[in-house]
Design goal:
Belongs to the gamma-glutamyltransferase family. The structure is a single chain. By secondary structure, the chain is an alpha+beta fold. The protein has one domain: Glutamine Phosphoribosylpyrophosphate, subunit 1, domain 1. The strands form four sheets. It has a seven-stranded antiparallel β-sheet with strand order 1-18-17-13-12-9-8. A seven-stranded antiparallel β-sheet has the order 7-4-3-11-10-2-19, covered by helices on one side. Strands 14-15-16 form a three-stranded mixed β-sheet. Helix 1 packs antiparallel against helix 2 and helix 13 packs across helix 14. The longest helix is centred in the middle third of the chain and has 21 residues.
Length: about 550
């Protein structure tokens, strides 16, 4: 794509769009990106490098994702020009029933943890698309955990913010508050227990986490602290390869994971937006953001109606994304007035990570991984070094809701990596942000596809996110109808949204709303572009 000369209308961080001709990595932390680069330079595939990045992020960005969480991935096979989705999300424990949580779902502690399946996805990625043994792929993460790494300003802020929560659990406090106080930027943080766990996985394989002595120690620690993760529940963890959902947008094919991901809302939003004259409106204009917000409301209503674990609620209805239905939804949007949020029933952000890797053969892997909220359950299981997720907070307790809690059922996820293809070209993109993920991705994609911004600029543009009553993922699922915007958004746009009836909250200039990473490849020139979000420690590399 050749970017047109368009004014940005907002301050930028000044990061360059990185370009190369062989490979690229873009992730939430520079050390994780370098871990992926090391594996690529040793002859690893994009899948090998993706696992290296995921494991390194577990160490250097521990508040976001890790072996105690889940992930979705999209894989582009250059040899077949095929896109596959990988579902690495775990189910509710076998003893997790609605009756057990009738008084509510705790935010923190071992009771908040569902079965982690990220490591199953690591194994599937390298078994299907990898070239290297785990001993090589996990080596950078093991080194970082064993020898330590300098704490970034971002991580130091997170630990300080959540210090009281982290101090509530002895192993967590020992790991992240080793002196009794939060570390300062530049202090070296070591995680020897996690290093030993990763060494075990590298030597014995991922099954060690689910079947061996490591599994016994993990479940013993969880059960002793009041959690529900038994050996039987842990054995339910699996990763599967599935066909992605697709939408034709202009001359692109847009691919996302199917449910239990709710990434279909991204396709629905873009499908609705196709019926509006986007090219007539200025970037970041109130007209543009208004229809995006209204499209989001409609897509999230469908999420509440239809989206859950397909093994329990059946396959996702294909007519939801039918062109004639999307056109009807577009026609229902009033260009002059915000409509109230509809819900099937009567907020908090999650903390996730996303990264993309492309190898020298043109294979592309996009991963979105998460513990849910910052530091997940905040519970490290004994001497394993594994920080467990708090994904149980995503369940609904209402009978007949498609996302109602049931033992052994996979919860509805917000993890929404996206991969675009057209002949000779492809783009992988992802972001953290809970329910904001698809909103951020649509915002970036529209400004990249429709207005010709380069990928780095599109990522840096000021963002918005809408919160809707009953439409938030974390229990009890929200009560606000509110549009949050980054402070760099033009005043005229904010005033235009308010004039249409939106309640708007202005955040700091850089939000933050998400942290988007992406890679774009063009066959004709054999040029790869990599972009990383300045809202976090994100860092891109290309060669």
């Amino acid at each position: 794509m050749t970017a047109r000369a368009i004014a940005t209308f907002a301050e930028r961080a000044g990061r360059p769009l990185l370009m190369g001709r062989c490979w690229a990595v873009s992730s939430g932390h520079s050390l994780a990106s370098w871990a992926g680069a090391r594996v690529l330079e040793r002859g690893g595939s994009a899948a090998d490098a993706a696992v290296a990045v995921a494991a390194a992020l577990n160490v250097v960005e521990p508040q976001m994702s890790g072996i105690g969480g889940d992930l979705f991935a999209l894989v582009y096979e250059a040899g077949t020009s095929t896109v596959w989705a990988v579902n690495g999300t775990g189910p509710a424990p076998l003893d997790a029933t609605p009756e057990r949580f009738r008084d509510g779902i705790p935010e923190r502690g071992p009771l908040a943890a569902s079965v982690p399946a990220a490591a199953r996805a690591w194994d599937l990625l390298v078994q299907r698309w990898g070239r290297l043994p785990l001993s090589i792929t996990l080596a950078p993460a093991i080194e970082l955990a064993r020898d330590g790494f300098p704490v970034s300003h971002n991580l130091a802020t997170y630990i300080e913010t959540y210090a009281d929560v982290l101090a509530s659990y002895p192993e967590t406090a020992r790991t992240f508050l080793p002196t009794g106080s939060p570390p300062c930027p530049g202090d070296v943080l070591r995680q020897p227990d996690l290093a030993r766990t990763l060494e075990t996985v590298a030597a014995e394989g991922v099954n060690a986490l689910y079947e061996g002595d490591l599994a016994e120690r993990l479940t013993r620690a969880v059960l002793a602290a009041g959690g529900l993760l038994t050996r039987e529940s842990l054995r339910l963890a699996r990763a599967t390869i599935v066909e992605p959902l697709q939408l034709a947008y202009r001359d692109w094919t847009i691919c996302v994971p199917p449910p239990n991901s709710s990434a279909h809302t991204l396709l629905e939003m873009l499908g609705i937006l196709q019926y509006f004259p986007l090219a007539r409106w200025r970037p970041l204009s109130p007209e543009l953001l208004h229809v995006m917000i209204e499209a989001k409301k409609l897509a999230f209503l469908d999420r509440e109606r239809f989206t859950g674990d397909p093994d329990f609620v059946g396959p996702f209805p294909p007519d939801v994304l039918a062109p004639e239905r999307l056109q009807r939804l577009a026609a229902a949007i009033d260009l002059t007035r915000a409509k109230p949020v509809l819900t099937t029933r009567p907020a908090r952000e999650d903390h996730t990570t996303s990264f993309s890797v492309m190898d020298h053969e043109g294979n592309l892997v996009v991963v979105t991984a998460s513990l849910n909220m910052a530091f997940g359950s905040a519970f490290i299981a004994g001497d394993t070094g594994i920080l467990l997720n708090n994904r149980m907070t995503y369940w609904h307790l209402e009978p007949k809701h498609p996302n109602q809690l049931q033992p052994g059922k996979r919860v509805r996820h917000t993890l929404s990596p996206v991969l675009l293809t057209r002949p000779g070209e492809r783009l992988g993109l992802g972001t953290p942000g809970s329910d904001a993920q698809v909103q951020i991705l649509v915002h970036v994609l529209v400004h990249w596809l429709e207005y010709g911004f380069d990928l780095q600029t599109a990522i840096e543009l000021p963002r918005w996110r809408h919160r809707g009553p009953g439409h938030e993922s974390n229990w009890p699922h929200g009560s606000l109808d509110l549009v949050q915007v980054e402070g760099r958004l033009p005043n005229a746009t904010i005033e235009g949204l308010q004039a249409r009836g939106h309640r708007v909250e202005r955040l700091a200039r850089w939000g933050p709303i998400g942290s988007c990473q992406g890679i774009h490849w063009r066959d004709a020139e054999r040029v790869v572009e990599a972009a990383a979000d300045p809202r976090s420690d994100a860092y891109a590399l290309a060669w």
